[in-house]
Amino acid sequence: MNKYKVEKTEYLQKILDVEAYSKQEAIEQVKKKYNLQEEVLESNDLVKTDIEIFNPNKFISKLDILKEKIDKFNKDRDWDQFHSPVNLSKSISIEAAELLECFQWSNDKYELEDVKEELADVMNYCLQLCNVLNLDPIDIINNKIDKNEKKYPIDKSKGVSTKYSKLWYI
Length: 170
Ligand SMILES: [Mg+2]
Description:
Layout: E1 2-7, E2 15-20, H1 23-33, E3 47-50, H2 62-77, H3 85-101, H4 112-132, H5 137-151, H6 154-157, H7 164-167
Antiparallel strand pairs: 1-2, 1-3
Magnesium ion (MG) binds near residues 95, 98 and 118.
């Protein structure tokens, strides 16, 4: 049995991973699992990658590949020595300020290329901090969203930007 990555960016903007013996079976599984309409998954180009191309035993996601690339970049330069949690936290904050600088003098005029670069810098340092602290970025974001769902119940928070600590007095 192989692992397949079925990508449905246009519709769900997420990657669905399934185990199957063939691409066709992978499509059938995704249809069933997500209760999708027939036509949504008819096109072959939605099945992007046989995961086995990378490694027959381990699912390697785009995020894993990116993390390896960042790791190699740092190792090649012997920069790991500078990447303590506190230094990386400072770097996240510095890059976040550079992101804000893109919008310094106007609310609606900005260079998208500059925004892309600074946003990438922020996320790059976030991933490095996860790596140093041995945290899975997907897991911690998932967990925080679960927490936020409890902190911000829809009936109290819909349409208002009030912080959770004050929300309960409303
Ligand atoms: Mg920067």
